[in-house]
Amino acid sequence: MEISSKHQKSSKKRKRKKKPTIENGLEAVVKPECFDGLTNWTKLQQVRSFLSHTKKFLLGILITFVHFSTILCDIISQTLAQVRNCLSIISQKVLEKNTKERVSEDSKSAGQSRFSKSYKKKRINKNSQNKNSSKKMKTVEEFEFDFNKRRDSNSTDTDVIDNEETERIDYTGLTKTVALDCEMVGVGPKGKDSILARVSIVNAFGNCIYDEYVKPKERITDYRTEVSGVRPADLQKGKDLYEVQKDVLSIIDGRRVVGHDLKHDFDVLFIGHPRSLIRDTSKYKPFRELSNGRTPSLKKLASVILNLDFQSGEHNSVQDAQVAMMLYLKHKKAWERSIKRNRRK
């Protein structure tokens, strides 16, 4: 009986679980029952660590791939935007070239017609006088455009009349110097791009000789009425761009063109003009000195030089052209002298 009791005690001792031991400074993991057949438990631990490292490595590769793909998408979108801008510039140049060719072809065909140049000039002058008989110089809002008082004392009316001597300030025909101004409306996203909406031309006496609205060929997203003064109803009765281009080119051909920041006006008209015949009030050096060498606004020039309250609300292209003409006539002698001096250099 004593032997059997000792045997039972020894069997109980054998059934006790072994406590984990420390091997190589690491706590040994107790073997589960399902791995009793494995002789080397450390190999299983190495496999597990290898799999965890592999998982981390693959996740890192995936994250870097996503990061570089986003960068690549940004680069592609920027490249596409640049290509789109280049294509728009090219299309504008092609359109300008085509319009010039069409205008030149029309002028050639008109020259070969049975009407002589003198007859056509008389006919154009009669039409312009009939159309613009109601567009004589009047008081505009709060001030009056008195061109005789504000004209350069050394310039005479006969300096600006075509083949005619007159002292009438109500002359509505063409003169050697004309002033041009355009109003634009916005197209495209948020109305950032500009297209032509209205063109106005006045002669050297400030009388309007041309004033037309232009039918848009694109969907207008911003009429800019608070600045341009253009409304949807105005453009419905407008002319096509090609007709307006043809009219403007026939008026300014061989004449001095006065205006403020004329580059933008010629750009939206898709026409050009000889540099020697352009008198831009935003480029004249004495005017720029009023803004410390920067481009002065037409409102500031009118206020400082002409003492006029100007552009207090909606802009008017006829009024803008009149003010530009007044600025030019007031400084005409010095302006033309500086141009001659620069040509000699």
TrEMBL record:
GO terms for cellular component: nucleus. Residues 1-19 have a biased composition (Basic residues). It is found in: Nucleus. The keyword GTP-binding does not apply. Keywords: Exonuclease, Hydrolase, Membrane, Nuclease, Nucleus, Transmembrane, Transmembrane helix. SMART domains: EXOIII. Residues 1-22, 100-137 are annotated as: Disordered. The chain crosses the membrane at residues 57-77. InterPro entries: REX4_DEDDh_dom, REXO1/3/4-like, Ribonucl_H, RNaseH-like_sf, RNaseH_sf. One of its GO terms (biological process) is rRNA processing. CDD domains: REX4_like (cd06144). The keyword Nuclease applies. Residues 176-337 form the Exonuclease domain. One of its GO terms (molecular function) is nucleic acid binding. Belongs to the REXO4 family. This is RNA exonuclease 4. It comes from Argiope bruennichi (Wasp spider). The lineage of its organism: Eukaryota, Metazoa, Ecdysozoa, Arthropoda, Chelicerata.
